[in-house]
């Protein structure tokens, strides 16, 4: 015998209410209702969801990118600076070898690398970042994604690249370089070649690492070998490929 239907039963999703606890309006009615208090928009609870959505968008856009190298460098390098031409070479060399170039998508070296990759028919990926001043993706980007948060964007630089190339740069570039160096040093990521281009530019830092950090036991003796320093795009990428071959 079938049970008697409950005349006052009310279903909300998986839950059924009977009797006094019965809701007076549907969830959708509440969803669509006007909500004059918008203070929740500025709470960490809501921010967590926004952060989550940045990861979702980033993963969705980059998961099928294929082999790629993240390239960092100064946002301030003018197009007539000799190191801008090296940035263009990096983008072109990557494209010619079927590797996507992932950059910050901004001006300076980011533009140079995107330009080289784009002109050579490759993928010039720009991970834009919200900054206090208006910042647009450079015109050579052909796959652009905007991020609110540096840390989400940094995850993309690491997760979707198999190596890093670092051109001369300032604090932003150093931050990105040492993020990668620390991840390799602590073995959070494996076989991740890191190349610095510009022996003259980087020599002071390398010397300081040897003379202070190693000498004073702040890092291990072999930690300075976590990156390779050279002067050209071709040498950088040839070294990266040799590392990939050695670990495959
Ligand atoms: C300062 C200027 C523009 C800043 N615009 C940027 N857009 C995208 N990414 C940026 C920007 N500035 C820094 N970055 C990231 O850090 C690295 C460069 O920083 P640095 O301090 O200049 O070395 C770079 O790799 C980006 O990922 C002027 O127009």
What order do the SSEs take from the amino end to the carboxyl end, as H and E?
EEHHEHEHEEHEHEHEH
Number of helices: 8
CATH architecture: 3-Layer(aba) Sandwich
Q: How many runs of DSSP E, i.e. beta strands?
A: 9
Strand order within the widest beta sheet: 6-5-4-3-7-8-9
Which overall shape is indicated by the principal axes computed on the Cα atoms? Answer: elongated
For this structure, the CATH topology is Rossmann fold
The CA-CA distance between the termini, in Å, is 67 Å
Mean pLDDT: 94
Q: How much beta, percentage-wise?
A: 5-15%
Report the C-alpha radius of gyration, rounded.
25 Å
Uncertain spans: none
Structural class: alpha/beta
Which helices and strands appear, and what pairs or packs with what?
Elements: E1 10-12, E2 15-17, H1 27-32, H2 44-62, E3 68-72, H3 82-96, E4 100-103, H4 109-119, E5 124-129, E6 143-147, H5 150-159, E7 164-166, H6 171-185, E8 194-197, H7 199-214, E9 228-230, H8 233-247
Parallel strand pairs: 3-4, 3-7, 4-5, 5-6, 7-8, 8-9
Antiparallel strand pairs: 1-2
Helix pairs in contact: 3-4, 3-8
Bound molecules: ligand LYK5OOP5.
Structure report:
Its EC number is 3.2.2.n1. With 248 residues, the protein is an alpha/beta fold. It has one domain (50-242): Rossmann fold, CATH 3.40.50.450. It has eight helices and nine strands. Helix 6 links the parallel strand 7 (164-166) and strand 8. It starts with 9 loop residues before the first strand and ends with a helix. The model has no long low-confidence stretch (mean pLDDT 94). The protein binds the ligand C/C(=C\CNc1ncnc2c1ncn2[C@@H]1O[C@H](COP(=O)(O)O)[C@@H](O)[C@H]1O)CO. Ligand LYK5OOP5 binds at residues 72-76, 104-107, 110, 129, 131, 135, 169-173, 176.
């Amino acid at each position: 015998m079938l049970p008697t239907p409950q005349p006052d039963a009310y279903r909300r999703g998986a839950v059924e209410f009977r009797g006094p606890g019965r809701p007076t309006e549907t969830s959708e009615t509440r969803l669509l209702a006007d909500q004059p208090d918008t203070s929740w928009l500025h709470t960490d609870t809501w921010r967590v969801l926004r952060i989550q959505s940045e990861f979702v968008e980033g993963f969705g856009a980059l998961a099928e990118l294929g082999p790629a190298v993240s390239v960092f460098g100064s946002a301030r390098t003018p197009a007539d600076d000799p190191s801008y031409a090296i940035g263009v070479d990096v983008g072109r060399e990557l494209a010619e070898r079927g590797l996507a170039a992932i950059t910050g998508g901004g001006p300076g070296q980011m533009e140079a690398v995107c330009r080289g990759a784009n002109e050579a028919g490759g993928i010039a990926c720009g991970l834009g970042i919200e900054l206090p001043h208006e910042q647009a993706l450079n015109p050579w980007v052909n796959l652009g994604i905007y991020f609110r948060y540096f840390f989400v964007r940094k995850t993309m630089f690491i997760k979707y690249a198999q190596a890093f190339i670092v051109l001369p740069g300032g604090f932003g570039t150093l931050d990105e370089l040492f993020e990668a160096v620390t991840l390799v040093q602590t073995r959070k990521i494996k076989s991740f070649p890191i190349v610095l281009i510009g022996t003259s530019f980087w020599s002071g830092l390398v010397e300081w690492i040897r003379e202070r950090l190693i000498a004073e036991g702040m890092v291990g003796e072999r930690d300075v070998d976590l990156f390779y320093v050279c002067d050209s795009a071709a040498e950088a990428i040839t070294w990266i490929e040799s590392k990939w071959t050695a670990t495959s």
